[in-house]
Design a protein that fits this description.
The structure is a homotrimer of 354-residue chains. By secondary structure, chain A is an alpha+beta fold. Chain A has one domain: Roll (Thiol Ester Dehydrase, Chain A). In chain A, 20% of the residues lie in helices and 29% in strands. Chain A contains eight helices and twelve strands. In chain A, strands 1, 2, 3, 4, 5, 6, 7, 8, 9, 10, 11 and 12 form a twelve-stranded antiparallel beta sheet that branches. In chain A, α1 packs antiparallel against α5. Chains A and B meet through β2, α1, α5 and α6 of A and α1, α2, α4, β8 and α5 of B.
């Protein structure tokens, strides 16, 4: 009798063009919003208050788009990265329809790249993953690539396909879920939003130390990662991790993304929406007990076609462990990430204009 | 003035036939569902996605039936087992009306058995506990028995009444909350459910190692046990536990049941509903830091009267601490549970047929 | 370019009469209720069961009023107490309109007192903070005062203004959110509420040991404090706390208030509503690992104007760390709090009459 359990796919199980429908669609609720707040302490007004979301022209209070990211990511883990050596990168992450409580997200991935490594024991798999809601609208579309073990090193290498990766998501591909036409955001909403700094006030090259720090406990990251139904063993199984070189549980990189975004409120309070994830690197592992700080740099100030109410900022947000960010720690002279840097995220936020 | 605090009942406070209305009815919400997901990472599709539940003919997404179990169990603790030495067993647990967000559960217990131990200091109490929803429909009906301290060893022993305990819940007593008539579950829903293995594919005697492991932290089990409003002191009070032989907080046995059920997804993904708990033993205590693994054996494959869309499997699921389950650890040559075995649960799940 | 981050206000930034609109209004949901239950295990029936709330004449199940307190308090932290040396006291806290899931709370504070300390480096700021719902109804109105650092000791002292602090909230100012006219609470609801002791059964001077104890973990208090969007650094940043005399994270005093209230169920089960906070002192710091116990004394038995269905009790609830309360620990012979006492709360609850 064949095994009833699924060991995850190995490198030789993937083929370019293969489409994988991921298990367990997920209905998002107000319960998820409360937990997200409890896990990260996020204070962006549009995703905290129905009244504020209403003032921005939304019919209801949406879910933080990073929660949509985690749910879509989590679904792909059992099929794509259960046997991964490393999560190598993200590209072209576009958030589409906002996610509201009651919506159900279903995720499908397509294999778009395969390249066996020269050691013959691992290979790199590129997938494009798309989360859609119950109406068939795209909630998130992004590419990630992972290094995956081969089950059998003797298995012949597939033809190498390296996909053209998108650069930063273009202005015309950003989805703005709100409309401030006729709204005096600068005059009426900034006090409740927590800052008077709007799109117009940021400059390319400007760097912001987000000041605050947050220590992560084992329960915190495991609650989060289970909430996203992410099944990667390294986050949960202390017994198995004891046998590894690292010796302990690793924190899901997305947990650090959400913490950094939450810390960025102090300096970016009007950046109400994460609209795109252009690229991202989990530069070093994070463990329970680490205290996360973050700083950001404005990479681009983007005008949105046909919109005078809102603009976009392309940001680099860097998160560190056990090191404050007043000196903007990043890379050493050798061009490598400093050992305290855990996240280098290139993403795009929406922020009202004057 | 009599004390305002309630010390819990002692053995001599119980009488056969006595009915106890338990305090604090409990309204279940989407917040409970989100927390349940965060605590256990459960991935069964029917209780994760409203769309999937709809495809199975349910009007809304129901709550995991084990959450109903924990809520009903929790209510009985202040009256039944606050002065318990040990929770000895379960029998005849039948899940009735599915629980939906917004439903309120009220729990009542009837004492059905009493037997003083020969030491004169403790006795065994059997209770049948019934949780009903706001419409008066039974949500859960089960028997458990506990060993309870006497307040006063000199108090005369009651007449011994040992109830006839039900064996495994019979096929005709199982409640199926969904209807797959006209639904091509095998063709259309298995990809989203996470497995193509249906009722027809399991064989009596088949054993499944669920592979994954989950480490428990103090916060995790305390959050869960408080969510269920279970007041057993041993789970919460490190100060008092330091004075005991065991020296530390004990994890609520039901927390391990839910973890084992969640781990069983890998091998039993289509077992959408726990319909009955036939018997259960918490074989050894579980503590924070322990990593739980689980394996299952198919005890019976049960046809349901008048149903060709769904069948039942009677399962034994065994959970271990700090030991993987590829060799199906259970009992030693002396017939006693191995020290790593923490749960031996005999229960019945519903699983669609081809 | 001016800094985009907000360092919080210092003593010299406050002026008597100044009004501060606090950032991030907050919509309360069923998710918050579930988390509140998971964090404290509260068992008061009116805030646990929609059916019970309905029996008390409420249209829906309200949120625990202490959750409203935490949300309002949390909002004031970034503006009022980010640079505080200590939270000195509370007064005149009146709960108004009950908070229901879906309601949004917005908080505003007015500076009502300023007094520089003789050391010239700190001063005491009194603020009156008001939380209103989306209909403009007051949810909570209270005064607190904090000792805040000066940014610059050379800055001249302001004119001293010490406000007249209200004493205990008067009977006519208490808001009763339910109506038991025509309801036989004593006969029909006490079993579900968990006690037959009603307003009539308590005597002034009576003391109650609430018996149970609860150990706090780092994750527990941080989840709670983030849920309230409270940004006080001392609760979250282990790295920064290591540099302080105390060496570790401090637990938010409000977390202890909610734990003490939850423990008080055993002895005060019919005290369904906290209607006022008259005064409060966080007598000693609480840390992760501490086990909290509590006891209460009845300070006053208050008749409510025009009401025969319900009365109020003014209570002192004292919480301790790592010490049980059968001997009602409070102050030493020197009049100072015992080192194990962490909370001395003077508040008023509503409790049905016979």
């Amino acid at each position: 009798m064949p095994s009833k359990t699924f060991p995850g796919n190995y490198f030789e199980d993937f083929a370019v063009g293969q489409e994988i429908v991921h298990a367990t669609p997920r209905t998002v609720t107000e319960g998820d919003i409360a937990l997200y707040t409890a896990l990260y302490g996020s204070r962006f007004a549009m995703t905290s208050a129905a009244t504020f979301a209403g003032s921005m022209g939304l019919e209801r209070m949406p879910v933080d788009s990073l929660l949509a990211f985690h749910l879509v990511f989590g679904k792909t883990v059992p099929d794509i990265s259960l046997n991964a050596v490393a999560n190598l990168g993200y590209a072209g992450g576009v958030f589409g329809a906002p996610l509201y409580p009651g919506d159900t997200v279903t995720t499908t991935s397509t294999v778009i790249g395969l390249k066996e490594n020269s050691n013959g024991r691992t290979g790199v798999v590129h997938v494009r993953s798309v989360g859609v809601n119950q109406k068939g609208e795209t909630v998130l579309d992004y590419v990630r690539w992972v290094m995956v073990h081969k089950r059998d090193a003797a298995f012949p290498a597939p033809e190498t396909v390296v996909p053209d990766l998108p650069g930063a998501v273009a202005a015309e591909d950003l989805h703005v879920p709100f409309d401030l036409t006729g709204v005096d955001y600068a005059g009426e909403l900034t006090a409740l939003a927590g800052s008077t700094d709007l799109w117009d006030d940021y400059e390319v090259g400007e760097r912001i130390d987000h000041v605050d720090g947050m220590t992560i406990e084992e329960s915190d990251h495991m609650l989060a990662t289970r909430l996203y139904q992410n099944t990667a063993k390294v986050h949960f199984n202390a017994l198995a991790q004891r046998e590894t070189k690292i010796g302990r549980r690793l924190i899901y990189g997305g947990h650090v993304i959400s913490l950094a975004r939450s810390l960025s409120f102090n300096g970016l309070a009007n950046a109400q929406v994460v609209a795109a994830i252009n690229a991202g690197v989990h530069a070093n592992p994070t463990f329970a007990g680490d205290t996360i700080h973050a700083w950001s740099e404005v990479l681009e100030r983007i005008e949105l076609p046909g919109r005078t109410d809102v603009g976009a900022l392309r940001l680099r947000t860097v998160a560190t462990k056990d090191r404050t960010c007043e000196d903007f720690p990043y890379k050493g002279e050798d061009g490598k990430y400093l050992p305290e840097v855990v996240l280098d995220l290139d993403y795009t936020v929406l922020i009202p204009r004057r």
